[in-house]
Amino acid sequence: MDVRRRMAPPPAVGVPHRKAVGAPRALQAGDALPLPIRHTNLIFSALFAVSLAYLMRRWRAKIRSSIPFHVVNLTEILATFVLVASLIYLLSFFGIAFVQSIVSSTDEDEDFLVASSTAKAPAPPTQCGLLGSADAVSEKMPEEDEEIVAGVVAGKIPSYVLETKLGDCRRAAGLRREALRRITGRQIEGLPLDGFDYASILGQCCELPVGYVQLPVGIAGPLLLDGQRFYVPMATTEGCLVASTNRGCKAIAESGGATSVVLRDAMTRAPVARFPTARRAAGLKAFLEDPANFDTLSVVFNRSSRFGRLQGVKCAMAGRNIYMRFSCSTGDAMGMNMISKGVQNVLDYLQDDFPDMDVISISGNFCSDKKSAAVNWIEGRGKSVVCEAVIKEEIVKKVLKTNVQSLVELNVIKNLAGSAVAGALGGFNAHASNIVSAIFIATGQDPAQNVESSQCMTMLEAINDGRDLHISVTMPSIEVGTVGGGTQLASQSACLDLLGVKGANRKSPGTNARILATVVAGGVLAGELSLLSALAAGQLVKSHMKYNRSSRDMSKVAS
Hints:
The chain has about 550 residues and is α+β, with helices and mostly antiparallel strands. About 45% of the residues lie in helices and about 15% in strands. Strand 1 and strand 2 (about 230-235) form a beta hairpin. The two termini are about 35 Å apart.
């Protein structure tokens, strides 16, 4: 979701505040100033400008009045002092070097600037007193924290207001966690609390946090796609998945790489409205689908965003209800919020000409979001991508341990005929959702949109007189973004940076998101190729018994 990040609110008056327990923060030069450094910089910049302007005016007046420069009054002396002091501050790189010379007055502080080979290892961070372990429970909490936890347990203080009232997201999560322990009687020892920036999710990613789940991230690649090498991050707990995808990447790279094409790039939103009669609903349908009205609708829609641009409107009716499926480009954002704002603008505009229109919902499921639907399979949603590669015969035998004919036959019987027997909707593949989910989680996408994003048709054909294998995946609704939502979290942002698509593309908005969509399709291509090969060679069960049968109790390991 492309929601803008909101900073944590300041502590409310009268509410006790306590610093989060953890490793001591490294000393910084700005800590020596009585005010935050940005405020100090503004003050000295203003003093410099004001004192300089005053002295210039006084000197000009002395020249006109033939008064010697050395004749000065108290105000001019004070202005000169302020000018010199502020100049020294500004020339010292906004005070950093000047203040650092004061802070770094001892040999111990000098090691803060230049790492010494003889420096001692930092002390381990203090264990949080609210982790929920037996030892932590026995520790007495500060009185103010005890009162807050007791209030939450008794229902007097709503748990969701802790961040707002305390102004400390880490402390709020710790107190909420302790209240949960007392209410449920369960320790949740394996769920870590420290080591996460809770302020980064406030108003953006998750509410009522009590910890975070750790997921391993593996790398498959290099994936040679469109002439570039990508190392694909995959967050998963399924053994063999990354290894299998990695084998597919190897087969693709050794055969010359894969190519992709983005057929469409448009997010959709479909509000539903009801009219007194079906005839009136049909009148709105005709108005929205009339090309002569498109420019007017575009102006109304596009004013909601710099990047959201209306592409079209398609309508469907069910009795006197009308479903309006708007599609628009959304830049590098996944774009659900962006298109929703634009649609709301259009609905407000239409209300003037259709006062009897009763808007039931901004989303009428004709979008269709987070549900497997034929409209997405046919019309597309998000990025519609086709990715293909030609795998050489020797690579099929050497890397994939099978042959071309077996792979082609398996794909027809399993992916095409088998999926048809099952009545699949967009599920004509071996395991596209495995790769899509793993990449989505690693890069901060909405995992629930894996439902429609995993719609995929895998095609295999023997070419060059049956010697080589042509493989392709067609994915009509990959919904991804590189800005907004979970993409701004530190870990997910690092994975996007690994792919070279972190943030928005300033030169060509939307390019980063499209590249990410092609990487997803390329990863699916590699995963499909490897799994089908394992099935054709009868290696699937053997590999899973070897790599996916851990008997370790990770909750005990974590504790």
